[in-house]
Heme O synthase (Saxophila tyrrhenica), 262 residues
Amino acid sequence: MSRTQNRPLVRGLISQRSALLFAILTGCLGVGVLWYGVNPTTAILGAGNLGLYAFVYTPLKRLHPVNTWVGAVVGAVPPLMGWCAAASQYSVTDSSNSSIWEESKDLLLTEQAIGGWLIAALLFAWQFPHFFALSHNVRHEYATAGYKMLTSSNTAMAARVSLRYSLAMFPICIGLSYYDVTDTAFMATSSVVNAWMLREAIKFWRLHGDKGSARALFWASVWQLPIVLVLAMVQKKGLWERLWRSINGEGDSEELWDDEDG
């Protein structure tokens, strides 16, 4: 395939054995660093994602188009790992005295964890317009190589799925504001960017990827995700209020309360 023909393994610059050993070594090392340097929950998510990618997603690409949905899960797990890594600093559970299950429940199954799941949902939904637009123009190469991609077997359905998940961006971003991950203005700013990708997804759906609609959707998706994530960081709930207090030397209200108690 034109997309992969220059990769080192394909060109024979490294052997399959060396690639396998490198993957095992770095995978084990990475999981170990997460376990001892972050927390077991993040390490388990990482290990599970490695297994999902290597032993489910990769072989599934030659078996059924559902591989894209599995791949979307693989893409959604890393931000959830990041959320767990950061949230563990503020967890009310004493990790030294709690079980892994208790820690995981605290980091993943509480109301405070909804933000992490929403960001994961954002990455999950994004995969479809991005990948289907990307794969559309090389769908015949995928088919020739023996990969079962939806753009090869059912272009119309791939376009509908892309449109559906482009629409899903709106409630996901609204949810981030509703659950106080971002401020209220994020609903408006993210909607502008999401509307751009939705417009291209509609064209992709109507034209079945022809007349440059696939390329237009691909580039819209390339820009949409980082812009939305940057907006979420810039418009994090309470960020500017805390910054203003810091500039004025006021400190957070919680810190002032603690000082009064002391």
